[in-house]
C-alpha cells in the first residue's frame, strides 16, 4: 500500500481554534471609535497575540487595519514578526540583555530601558555595532514592578538618567511610558499615576527639548481622554475581551472560537462516577459525552464540574475532572447528540456564543490567562 503524507496541521477532527479576520477588523474599528482624537494606537501582540497566533494577527493589523505600531514582550516575539514580513514599528515592552543589541539593530526594533544599569551597556554595544539604538523609557508610577521610579525621593535621579540617555549619541529615545495598575476600575489611583508621569515629563522637558511619544493607557483605560496622551496600547480589546466590562465595548466580537467534537457517548447509571477522583456522581441515569479536548489543550482543570460547552445550540456542563486530553459533559437533555457533533468552548457559532470571560470566571481567573493558555497543539485556522 502506498502511503501519501497529508498535511494535518489544520486538522479539525479533534480540537481547533478559528481566528476571525472580520471580528478582528471590527474590533479595531470599535476601539478607534472610542479613542481620543489625534491619539495613535499600538496593537499589543505579545504572548503570540494573546494566544491567537501573532503570525496570523499581525499581518491583518498591518495590511488591512492600517496599524503601524506593534508591541511585544520579548525579543523572540519581535524577530518572529519581522521574519513573517511585518515592517511596522515594534516595541519590546521590556529590557533585553545588552548582548542582543546587534539583533535589535538588525531587525530595527525598539527596546525598553527600565533601569540605569542598562544605559552604559546599551550605549557600548550600540557603538560597537556602528549605529544608534532605538528605545522607550519605562516609568514605575505605582505598580512597584518595572521601570524607573517616579517616587518623590527618586524622581530627580530618574530625570537625570533620562537626560543622560537623551544626550548619549548611541541611544535614540523615542518614547516614554508607564502602566496603570487598575485603569478605570480605580480612577483616583490612576490619576495619581498620571500625576507622577506628568511630573517626570515636566522635569525632563526643563532639561531636554527632545519630544517623546507618551503612552500610559492600555485596554483598561483606553477610552478615557484623560489618560490617552499620545498613544494607547490596545491589547485584550483587540481580541474581543474586556479589561473593564462596560457598554462602551458591547460591539466587540470574539476573535477566537475554540471547537472540539463529541468523541464518544456513554450511558452512566444512577450512582456511578466519572473521570478521576470520583468528583461527580450521577444523581439519575445519565448520558455523558466525551469531548476530545483537555487541559493539555487549554481547558483548565479548574473547570472540572464548573465549565461548559455548547453542543447543538445547548449549553451543557462539564462533569467530573477535566483530563489531559479530554473532558466529559452531561448530555442527558440532548437526545439527538451524535458522535462527531461540533462543540464550542469559547467564541461564536451559528449565532450563539460562549464568553471567554465567563468561562474564565468559573475557573477563578481572567480571559487573558484562558486565551494564552490555549496550547500550541491546538491549530489556529484563519477564517
Radius of gyration: 24 Å
So what's the overall shape? elongated
CATH architecture of the largest domain: Alpha-Beta Barrel
Q: Which strand order does the major sheet show?
A: 11-14-17-16-15-18
CATH class of the largest domain: Alpha Beta
Largest sheet: 6 strands, antiparallel, barrel
CATH fold group of the largest domain: TIM Barrel
Number of domains: 2
- Name the CATH superfamily assignment of the largest domain: Alanine racemase
The low-confidence parts are none
- Mean pLDDT over the residues: 96
Distance between the amino and carboxyl termini:
35 Å
Number of strands: 20
Order of helices and strands: EHEHHEHEHEHEEHEHEEEEEEEEEEEHHE
Structural class: alpha/beta
Fraction of residues in H or I helices: 25-40%
Structure report:
The chain has 383 residues and is α/β, with parallel strands linked by helices. It folds into 2 domains: 21-245, Alanine racemase (TIM Barrel, Alpha-Beta Barrel); 256-382, Beta Barrel (Lyase, Ornithine Decarboxylase, Chain A, domain 1), CATH 2.40.37.10. 26% of the residues lie in helices and 25% in strands. The protein is built from 10 helices and 20 strands. Strands 11-14-17-16-15-18 form a 6-stranded antiparallel β-barrel. Strands 5, 6, 7, 8 and 9 form a 5-stranded parallel beta sheet that branches. The chain has a 4-stranded parallel beta sheet with strand order 4-3-2-10. α7 packs across α8. The longest helix has 21 residues, at 187-207. The mean pLDDT is 96.
